[in-house]
Predict the structure.
Amino acid sequence: MSFDTPLAIAGPLRHPRQMLGDQEYGGHASIHDDAMAEKLGFRAGPIEGPTHFSLFPPLLEKIWGRAWFEQGCISSHYLNMVVEGEAVRAFAEIPAEGAKMTRVWAEKADGTPVLEASATLGLDAGPTLLEQRMASLRPPGKLLILEDLKVGMTGARDEVVRMDPGQHMGALYPFSLNQKLAAITEPSPWYSDAAASPWGRAIIPLEMISVLAEYSSRQAEFPVKGPAVGLFADQEIRLIDGPLFVGEDYVLRREIVALAESKRTESYWVRTRIFDCTGTRQVAEMLLNHATLKHSYAGYAEAG
């Protein structure tokens, strides 16, 4: 071989849609509401981070084939917000033959980084980007918004969830799968047509696994103080025995696996394990860093 130069493949520029403008949690609008975003110092309500995950399956299917939909993982650190009207493109390095890990990322049309991530296949590919980031976290100082949380705390109960095509996904996700598929950046017949799917059933798109795993999160009853506004800072979605299917019941179990702090945020990392309807076979999981903005909590500066 004449060169060991790393090469990459890229998808086309896409214009992701903002579908969380009407999102509510804790009795108030979220950062995805333009007015709330501007109040907090952002220029507009950002598009939710996992929306950009839809850009990657065409690239990762090219690299690893159908197996990626069954045992693939994206582990992402979000870097810059995207607002509706901006264009985004996904990239993936072409791994060596037989390799089960590669670097992927997304950029705006002007080159501004949107996210950095690792993509892996199977459970033996090595530490993901977020596993590495978690290992380097320093213990937080005194927490206020999250002072009642502890690492190892688990959700109050098993949560039973499903995603039907026309099902409204609640206040956190005020749309249905059908509405998302009308706006998704990378449409596929596999998401809606059982006959077209290699598994004989319609599969849940990668970005909508985030919705499936998060829309019932209030049932966990984690004692986070509020009202305060948060955002997704890091997110990993891993398929273990996938894909996940439309119209299927799943059991969710949550655990707080890390707490952290920065100048602007208090963060809690939650691992959500997704099991089949019997609760005995794990099929996927999500790791999510909820970063809560300190200045969105009334009296934070005075309390500190």
Summary: The first strand starts at residue 8 and ends at 10.
